[in-house]
Amino acid sequence: MKSIRKKLLWILAYISTGVALILPFISITSWEFWTIDFKLFLSVNLFIPPLLLYKKTRYIRPVIMLMCLTLFGFLQMACPRLPGAIELFVLNLTSGKAFLQFGIKIAIIVIMTLLFSRYYCGWICPKGTVQEMVYQSRFNTTMPLWIDRKLKYLKYIMLGLLILCPLIFQYRLYEHIGPFRVIFNLGGSPLLVLHFAFWIILSVFVERAYCRYFCPEGALLALINKISIFRIRIDSKCTSCRQCEEICPVDAINIKDRKVLSICKEECIVCKECEAKCRKNMINFL
């Protein structure tokens, strides 16, 4: 079963790479959404999954993250980002163009997550990159487990509000409270600046705090990640040395039944740090 899965993964990787390379040269004038921004966004999403097959690609992950931060964050290419796209899609459900304008982008991320896990969060999302840049490992702060578990429900509440507010009240909630608008849109109310400052300061002490507890797109992809086909897996022969547990940026690895390590599928962002840390090759993307 493992060998079949690996062969299928390699086939998909070759297809994904090929499409990513030729995509920028394809021109479809009849499709309004087929812009340079969209082709760039799609190419990046197709280019990253093949990299997940190699352990040493974790070293180029920071380069890709900085590139995506520049292109999709500061230069605002392929906007709106996922939360905004979800709000606009729900807000314009009665419009025939809503799917073409916003739905396709959502569908791409959902399908790719279903296939290759939450690489979008770990490799592409500008908000995640900013948090990793400000995090200071020397503080090594860990939330008490009971607080951590309760706070994680907050992002699912945010996801619900992200859908219900435009659907019922025709109101884009995240447009007004999304904290990272402060740096990516270079503006915002004093309250929004305080909201942004809160998450940035917390992220100095708790790695990817916003991703863990408040991000609605992270909540959506976490739900999809429960049934993703290819993901980080721990071999049953693992000796539970727990070195991977210590290095995980989102605390997605924990002891199951106090005997063996397991990965929380919802929280894993495919950063591949655990895979590189394991000297016995017990962790693989399959």
Care to describe what's here?
The protein is mainly α and 286 residues long. It has one domain (2-231). The protein is built from 16 helices and 4 strands. The chain has helices at residues 2-22, 36-51, 61-74, 82-91, 98-116, 119-124, 126-134, 145-151, 153-168, 173-177, 181-184, 190-205, 209-213, 216-225, 243-247, 273-277; strands spanning 232-234, 253-256, 260-263, 283-285. The strands form 2 sheets. It has a two-stranded antiparallel sheet with strand order 1-4. A two-stranded antiparallel sheet has the order 2-3. A hairpin with a 3-residue loop joins strand 2 (253-256) and strand 3 (260-263). Helix 4 packs across helix 5 (98-116). The longest helix has 21 residues, at 2-22. It is globular and about 55 Å long. The N and C termini lie close together (11 Å). The model has no long low-confidence stretch (mean pLDDT 88).
Give the helices and strands, then pairings.
Layout: H1 2-22, H2 36-51, H3 61-74, H4 82-91, H5 98-116, H6 119-124, H7 126-134, H8 145-151, H9 153-168, H10 173-177, H11 181-184, H12 190-205, H13 209-213, H14 216-225, E1 232-234, H15 243-247, E2 253-256, E3 260-263, H16 273-277, E4 283-285
Antiparallel strand pairs: 1-4, 2-3
Helix pairs in contact: 1-2, 2-5, 3-7, 4-5, 4-9, 7-12, 9-14
The count of strands amounts to 4
Structural class: mainly alpha
Order of helices and strands: HHHHHHHHHHHHHHEHEEHE
Strand order, biggest sheet? 1-4
How many domains make up the 3D coordinates? Answer: 1
Largest sheet: 2 strands, antiparallel
**Which bin fits the share of residues in helices?**
55-70%
First-residue to last-residue Cα separation: 11 Å
Taking pLDDT < 50 over at least 5 consecutive residues as the criterion, the unreliable ranges are: none
Number of helices: 16
Shape: globular
In angstroms, what is the radius of gyration?
A: 19 Å
How confident is the prediction overall: mean pLDDT? 88
Tell me what portion of residues adopts beta-strand conformation: under 5%
